[in-house]
Amino acid sequence: MKRKKIPSLVKDQKLVERRRKQIIEAAVECYKEKGFHKTTTREIAEKAGFSIGTLYEYIRKKEDVLYLVCDAIYEEVQRKAAEAIGFHTDAVVQLKRALFGYFSVMDSMQDEVVVMYQEVKSLSKESLPYVLKKERDMEEVFEELLTRCVAEKRLSLLQKEIRCAANNLVIAGQMWAFRRWTLQEAYDINTYTELQWRLLYFGMKHVSEVTE
Amino acid sequence: MKRKKIPSLVKDQKLVERRRKQIIEAAVECYKEKGFHKTTTREIAEKAGFSIGTLYEYIRKKEDVLYLVCDAIYEEVQRKAAEAIGFHTDAVVQLKRALFGYFSVMDSMQDEVVVMYQEVKSLSKESLPYVLKKERDMEEVFEELLTRCVAEKRLSLLQKEIRCAANNLVIAGQMWAFRRWTLQEAYDINTYTELQWRLLYFGMKHVSEVTE
Amino acid sequence: MKRKKIPSLVKDQKLVERRRKQIIEAAVECYKEKGFHKTTTREIAEKAGFSIGTLYEYIRKKEDVLYLVCDAIYEEVQRKAAEAIGFHTDAVVQLKRALFGYFSVMDSMQDEVVVMYQEVKSLSKESLPYVLKKERDMEEVFEELLTRCVAEKRLSLLQKEIRCAANNLVIAGQMWAFRRWTLQEAYDINTYTELQWRLLYFGMKHVSEVTE
Amino acid sequence: MKRKKIPSLVKDQKLVERRRKQIIEAAVECYKEKGFHKTTTREIAEKAGFSIGTLYEYIRKKEDVLYLVCDAIYEEVQRKAAEAIGFHTDAVVQLKRALFGYFSVMDSMQDEVVVMYQEVKSLSKESLPYVLKKERDMEEVFEELLTRCVAEKRLSLLQKEIRCAANNLVIAGQMWAFRRWTLQEAYDINTYTELQWRLLYFGMKHVSEVTE
DNA sequence: AATGAATGAGCCTTCATTCAT
DNA sequence: GATGAATGAAGGCTCATTCAT
To answer: Where is the DNA-binding region (chains A, B, C, D) (predicted)?
Structure first.
């Protein structure tokens, strides 16, 4: 499943890209402040610096902006995360670096993450899958890293445990943004990252031990 | 911080309570289906079985319904969770029971949890704190259980680690509902609960070990 | 095919009827002046004497007003025509009276007829048939009268000629309104009626004669 | 009253003519499908094969296209009708031929006729007369033919009856297109033409007889 | 001459809220 | 207390027209 194409009346692809970047930027700012529903298309146009008519040259419906925004956020998260991961011969070290990189992205994109969390549900039944796919991709990045750790006997997760663990990693990062009202009251990003790394890492390391 | 009082034009407290129960029930159903913003007050009134005029005898603004709903959901979660926890002499057993009970509630109230997750942000700046307080209460329930485990040397969490761990427990439960599109594709509630228990438990047990 | 029911949010049937009468009256006036497309719903509401919100309590879409108008016009034409026809033992006399009555109605409802002629095409594919049916009904009234004339040997139309002749009668009346820019420059309604009666009547009387 | 001149920004007359032909062709197609009001200038430009900017080099306002279309249709009707009429020494034969020719044109230009009937009213008060004049010209063609028939004693119409009769001839043809939903259900063009010829001809032949 | 991006007035429609009955 | 008709602000979206390139 690729990115969904939103048609534009304007033909110049370069221009479309530039204008849409403006739109997204403006929209994110508005969404942060008042959410998707309370943001009017006029506000977005205005903040983007052009008229309402022009806005509609680059989208078809209000919801298109939301899709554009969600898509852009994921794109950026993935891009930043990917470049943060790098590679290391030691599987666990790589996993750790990936997590730290991902958490750092979550920290720097807090607002965007919150927007995503709260507005995804407003996407149409048609657009939603495209976005969920990207979320799932994120999960899979960690699944693969975990799989490598398991393959190299650095973690002893069962096959079925990997997905759950990967989920936890992904979520832990997002929650830094989404539950900032409580978490950021108690920790700074470094402390939080370190803490979560250990909680999650040791969980994964010892999960196969017998328990009561 | 107590529950926030929503004024009603109707004097008879009994009646107010009965009607509001109807309102909440109707609203939750609507929110599940289309979210807060796309649900009209008319729909709520209709589904509740009375006229739009009557609805406004029991609330002042559309948002009041959302508050009522959020409040009611938390109330129910807490009530059910509380009765599920019970007591056990062994601190870890009690923690485990609490977690299992909580997860079971999350499973049975999936829709409600999703509604909460997606609509809280629509609460006014004024109402939000009341609701976040309840969320925080949930966290504290687990913080206390963890504190007891630590006190009885069953877990060796540092003071500052407790809050983060408690957060993870709370979140893990909510995610069963909120990320059902991915998690429930892979697990059933029992498997998920068991898995998370072990991942989280061992994480908390071994978190203080030295790590690379 | 009965009249199509346009749903209303207002329950009081009596009120619905009264308000819709106002709407129709206002709309006809607007349509006369500027046509359906250039008439705004606000203008209709205003001319009808209530707010735009109220208008939409009695219709769903702008086009509903058009349907209401078309339906009302036909209803009135039929009602007036019916009461004008009466009965006479002599079939031809009855036909003549019917025609004269019909023409008189066309004369008194000129504006409405013109509106109909020009706006019917704006009805949705869904509504159109209901209106065309009424037009066809009009035709059939004359077909029956002609059939009686034929049965009583007062006219010698072949079966297949009846429909065409009936059409001509119907049209001749409508044209008094629709082509008033030319016809009413040359005739008054009485002259026109008398003239058409004779042209059409003798046509029908002698149509079966051999022609070159 | 001549044709009304629509100014163009482009100097080259040849080009103007060519482009306008394209515009008209495109517009007619659009009007057939959705009427004047629902057709956008963009659609016309696109279907004509050039840009919206270019369209506005050849017209000033949307309505200009409508005028161009109406004018073109009449032009074509007249041209085709004229070439169909021919000449015959016998006045009635010529009348008949003219009618048959005219009906045949109406048949082949059904869509255009319908467009005209429904959109003329959308012409500005300023343009309308030019178009009505052409309609009147059509009438006059038949008035003249009828006058000749009368002069040669082949028909005994009174002076004032000629215009009405001519009107009926013109209308009968147009109705084949405009009321095709009912007429073409019952007849084919040949039957219809023959039938109308006889109904109208005998009407005109015997109109001066005394009637009840 | 041709292009097509930009504009913004304006339209239809919805819906939270009020208030007379 | 209950009802539901009335209100009108507000929002999404369209499209004729312009103008810089």
So the answer is: 40-59
* Residue B131: other Cβ atoms inside 10 A: 19
Length of chain A counted residue by residue: 212
Residue with tokens 């649900």: B39
| pLDDT less than 70: residues of chain A | 210-212
Question: Chain B partners of A152 at a C-beta cutoff of 8 Å?
Answer: none
Evaluate whether B20 touches B58 at the Cβ level (below 8 Å): yes
Over range C94-120, report the average pLDDT. 93
CA dihedral sign, ordered B121, B122, B128, B130: negative
* Closest nt by CA–C1' to C51: F7
CATH 1.10.357.10 fits B69-206, yes or no: yes
- A28 with A69: CB under 8 angstroms? yes
Contact map slice: C 133-162 vs D, CB within 8 A: 135-136, 139, 160-161
Amino acid present at A192: Y
CA–C1' D33–E21 (A)? 51
The pLDDT tens digits for C13-47 are 999 999 999 999 999 999 999 999 999 999 999 99
| CATH 1.10.357.10 location in chain D | 70-206
Among C91-105, C192-206, D5-19, D77-91, the range scoring the smallest mean pLDDT is D77-91
Fold of A73-206: Tetracycline Repressor; domain 2 (1.10.357)
Asked if the B9-60 domain carries CATH number 2.30.38.10, the reply is: no
CATH 1.10.357.10 maps onto chain B at 69-206
The two three-digit tokens of residue C79, written as one number: 């009602």
Q: Name the CATH topology of C13-206.
A: Tetracycline Repressor; domain 2 (1.10.357)
The b/e string for C88-127 (b: 16+ C-beta within 10 A; e otherwise) is eeebbebbbbbbbbbbbbbbebbbbbbbbbbbbebbeeeb
Domain ranges in chain B with CATH number 1.10.10.60 = 9-60
State the nearest residue by CA to the C1' of E15.
Answer: B40
> Could you tell me if A202 and A163 are in contact, meaning their C-beta atoms sit under 8 angstroms apart?
no
**Nearest residue to D29 via CA among D59, D58, D72, D60:** D72
Q: Which residues from A are below 8 Å from B202, CB to CB?
A: 202-203, 205-207, 209, 211
Neighbours of chain A (3+ CB pairs under 8 A): B
Does the pLDDT of residue D212 top 80, yes or no? no
Å separating the CA of residue D23 from the C1' of nucleotide F20: 25
Distance of CA A26 to the CA centre of its chain: 19
CA distance A99 to A83: 12
Are B182 and A165 within 8 A, CB to CB? no
**How many angstroms separate the CA atoms of C10 and C90, rounded?**
49
- Distance in Å from the first CA to the final CA of chain D: 43
The whole-number average pLDDT for the span D165-186 is 96
pLDDT mean over C54-61: 98
Q: Say whether the D–B interface has 3 or more Cβ pairs within 8 Å.
A: no
Please list the residue range(s) of chain D that carry CATH number 1.10.10.60. 7-60
- Is the domain covering A7-60 a CATH 1.10.10.60 domain? yes
> Which residues does chain B have with pLDDT short of 70?
1, 210-212
The answer to whether residues A121 and A131 touch, using CB atoms and an 8 Å cutoff, is no
Q: How far is CA C23 from CA B111, C37, C45, C67, in A?
A: 45, 16, 7, 12
Residue ranges matching CATH 1.10.357.10 in chain A: 73-206
Nucleotide nearest to B65 (CA to C1'): E16
Q: Find out if CATH 1.10.357.10 is the number for domain D70-206.
A: yes
From B118-122, C42-46, C187-191, D44-48, the region with the lowest mean pLDDT? B118-122
A and C in touch (3+ CB pairs within 8 angstroms): no
